[in-house]
Structure formats: structure tokens, C-alpha cells
Write a structure and sequence with these properties.
Helix content of chain A: 25-40%
Strand content of chain A: 15-25%
CATH topology of the largest domain in chain A: Jelly Rolls
Oligomer: homodimer
CATH class of the largest domain in chain A: Mainly Beta
Largest sheet of chain A: 4 strands, antiparallel
Low-confidence stretches of chain A: 1-12
Distance between the termini of chain A: 56 Å
CATH superfamily of the largest domain in chain A: Jelly Rolls
Number of strands of chain A: 12
Largest interface: A-B, 44 and 45 residues
Shape of chain A: globular
Order of helices and strands of chain A: HHEEEEEEEEHHHEEHHEEH
Number of helices of chain A: 8
CATH architecture of the largest domain in chain A: Sandwich
Structural class of chain A: alpha+beta
Chain lengths: 237, 237
DNA sequence: TGAAAACTGTGATGCGATTCACAGTTTTTT
DNA sequence: AAAAAACTGTGAATCGCATCACAGTTTTCA
């Protein structure tokens, strides 16, 4: 059975299922069957995939690109809740109940995603309990991650919040290149501010300070190099 | 098969499994079998059930009482991450990998809990996929709840944070009584402060203000009555 | 029930993040 | 490659939360 792959600038793997750990360990036949259920979509940078409060009933797997999930707050800002990259999935809440989306989902870059309708996915779960264990594992990781974020938001030192989010980005989006560790920031300063509950100016100032202290080095607006990993992890402790 | 129930002041149901939705829909035989796997424990108020960083490999179900999960922060405070009450379960992270606990768990009241070792629970999951679906559902709810907490932490107005946590407590621990809606607060002022990343004094002042504005009424230190639900939900918006 | 312990309320003070405004820089677009 | 748009950096003033200190109150426990 031949399967058509969608066009995708940033995709390393050809198929969604190859990229997502929840589908590991399935036979080629099973894989092919899943592909039959999948709808492939692409979006341009800046497009909104889902609106906060909108009905939504699919599991979505990110094939390539980056997405942000946010809610608009009362004072006109955005509270960013999650960032998603290749291999991440979302919408699992929709799989158990008729709920509306808890956030707006926006493409930070051009993205390619695969979606599976609720019914099909439910059936899949019943046939392959291993998938549901994998999802369980992922959700539990996500929970842990959110707990850590929450912890660093509660910690009073603002320095630490900024450092923590940079470490976070580094782990998820960074890569070692010719001995240097570079991170392409998924958000601009205002986005970072909205992620950790500060203002744009404060983020700017704190990051400048980290740069002056030789902890990071900025390369344009979007890329930072991490010079002193230790200092970044410990700052504020 | 007869099963021994542990003594438990606050328990409404006799057995853990009757109280936890993840075991719904099992036959009496299955229920009895699960009881055979369960270890029953009680703890006194103030006792620590698990230490942050300690090895832990069991699923824990709260039978009666209240627990708080927290981590000590660098500046000597506690960041409270979760509150657990009857029917809640925790430790699901331990079921998938050899991890250490991500927090300290402390009894806020006398508590009774049931625990199931990892191996036994793993086997249970394989035999009863429905359980794993239920857990999936619960985790996804918890994730949503944490997202909301995060959102209200990011929102800059401190008023809103305090209101949000009171609504939170009301939903989880409140009850209507003779037309009045009363909440027995699970935490003292300092605990609330540690939950939402403020100081004790600020929480005091904000709550006093809510009281002056006729939104809530304090009845001693531990109990508040909610007078104006609307105002509480909207304050700051 | 009464004493001790724990918790809460409140004023004064200082620090630091926010706000506002605008210049400077980087990135995108054509 | 030039122009436009988006984003970043920074100073000055303000406002509000944290801190400190202690009195007042509630709760616990003997």
C-alpha cells in the first residue's frame, strides 16, 4: 500500500507515524492502516489552526514546524500554555468527551500536521492498548513539565524564570553545532514574556544581563548561543 | 472474598475501588482481585508520605483526607503543586519508568490511602485496557487544570490569582449548606500564598478586600462563605 | 477550660517590575 | 538592494508587592 506524504519543509521523516513514539512497535500493516485514517494538512506561518472555545474532536500530530497554544487574558495579553514541535501530539482531551478546545492554536512557522478523527482513534486504542500506554506516558511527562513550569513561575526571582525558559527552549529546540550550542528561539521577546508572565521590556533587560554576564550570546534576534550552561541552570538558586 | 477496610474518619465509601472512577465498570470478582493487590496505609496530619527525589514506584489512591504535593524552592519557601482529596490518585509517573518522586507529599489532615505496586498495576493495565483509558482521561483533566492554574499565574493582576484559587478550592472542597456555600480551606494563608506564588501578607490583604467588598465572608480562619460567586469569577477581568 | 502555640491582620518602608515613550536594530517584503 | 514592517533596547517615573515588625486573634492540646 503506497501512502502519499505531504509536502513539508522541516520534516525529517516522511510519515507522521514514523515520527511519533505512540505508534512505535506497530507492524507495517497496522501502520498502513493508520495512514488510511489520517488527514494531512499544512498551514502557513501565522495561521490559526484552532480557536479557543471551538468544537474540536481530533487528535493532531505535528509533522513539521512549530505551534503555540495560548489563551487571551483579560488584560489583552496572551498566556502561552504550550509549544509544540515535530513529533508532539495534541487534542487528546477531545478524544474522551465532547469538549471545546481549551486554547487557540497558532502556527509559529509553516507547519504540517496529521489529524485523526475521534472515532477512528478510539477504535485504534481498543485494538492496540499499547498506544494508550504510550499516550499515558507522554501525558504524564507533559504534566511533569507543566509542574516544573508552574514551580518556576511561583519562584519569586524573575531571573530564574527567564533562565528556566531558556533552558527549556534549549532542551526542546537547541542543537550542538561545531561545538557551540545554539538555540533558535521559538518566540520573540514579547512571546517569551507572555509565556512566563512578564513584560517584553523585562525579558529584554534580563536577557541582556545574561549576555553581559557571559552566560549567553545573542546572534541576531532569534538565535542565542549558550556559553555557560551551568550558570543558566543555577542562576537564582 | 471478604476485604478488610481500613479505618478512616472522612471516608464516605468503604473501599478505595468504590471511590475511584478508574475502577468503575469492573466485575465484583475483578474488584476483589484488585483488593488483594492493595496495601492500605494511614498517616497522621503533618506526616510526610513521600520525599522529593525519593525512589517511588506505586500508584497511590486517596481514600480519605487531604494531601499536598510541594517542592522546596531555592529561597526557602514551598511551591505547592497539587492538592489531593478522596478519590484522587497520584504517582502515575512511577508506573512507566524508574523515576524518583517529583515532589514531597504531606498529609494536611489525617489520611487514609491505598497503594498498588508498579508490577501489579502494569499487569492490571494489560488485562483491563478500560482502566488505562480512564487514567488517560483523568490525566488529561489534570493537565487542563494545571493549564488554567498556569494561566492565572501568568495573568498579572494579583487580585485575579487570589480569586482564582478561591474558586478552585470552592469547586473541589466547597459544599452548599442551608443555602450558603461554604468552603473549608485546605491551606492556611501562608499555604495559599505558596500555592499561587505570593506572600502571606498579600494574600491576607487581598482576601480582606474581597471580604470588605462583600464577595466572601470569613468564618474563623479556615472557613469562608462565598457570597458573590459572580464577582469572584470576574474580578480582574 | 485555660494556657500555649499557631496563625492572621496591618502599618511603614524599600525595591524592583511595569509603564510609557522613542530611538535603534533586525527581519521581511517587493 | 531598498523600503517597510516588525522587533528590540533603554531611560525615567510610577505603582504595587515584598519585607519587617509586632499586635491581635484563633486554634490546638493538655
Amino acid at each position: 500500500m503506497e501512502v502519499i506524504a505531504i509536502h513539508c519543509d522541516q520534516c525529517k521523516e516522511r510519515y507522521c507515524t514514523q515520527q511519533v513514539s505512540i505508534f512505535n512497535g506497530l507492524t507495517p500493516e497496522e501502520n498502513a492502516k493508520i495512514h488510511g485514517l489520517i488527514q494531512r494538512l499544512s498551514f502557513k506561518k501565522g495561521e490559526l489552526l484552532i480557536l479557543d472555545g471551538q468544537a474540536y474532536d481530533r487528535l493532531m500530530i505535528v509533522h513539521g514546524g512549530r505551534l503555540k497554544a495560548y489563551r487571551d487574558t483579560a488584560d489583552g495579553k496572551q498566556q502561552i500554555l504550550h509549544l509544540f514541535g515535530p513529533g508532539d501530539f495534541l487534542g487528546e482531551r477531545a478524544l474522551f468527551a465532547e469538549t471545546n478546545s481549551a486554547y487557540t492554536l497558532e502556527a509559529l512557522t509553516n507547519v504540517a500536521v496529521c489529524t485523526i478523527p475521534r472515532e477512528a482513534f478510539q477504535a485504534l486504542l481498543d485494538e492496540h492498548p499499547s498506544i494508550s500506554k504510550k499516550i499515558l506516558e507522554t501525558l504524564s511527562d507533559r504534566l511533569t513539565h507543566l509542574e516544573r513550569t508552574l514551580e518556576s513561575m511561583g519562584a519569586k526571582t524573575i531571573e530564574k524564570r527567564v533562565s528556566a525558559v531558556l533552558v527549556d527552549f534549549a532542551e526542546k529546540f537547541g542543537k550542538r553545532e561545531q561545538g557551540r550550542f545554539e538555540v533558535e528561539l521559538p518566540l520573540n521577546r514579547e512571546g517569551i514574556a507572555n509565556y512566563i508572565g512578564l513584560t517584553r521590556e523585562t525579558v529584554t533587560r534580563k536577557m541582556k544581563r545574561l549576555e553581559r554576564d557571559g552566560v549567553i550570546r545573542a546572534n541576531g534576534n532569534k538565535i542565542i548561543e549558550i556559553l555557560d550552561w551551568e550558570a543558566l541552570q543555577d542562576s537564582g538558586e
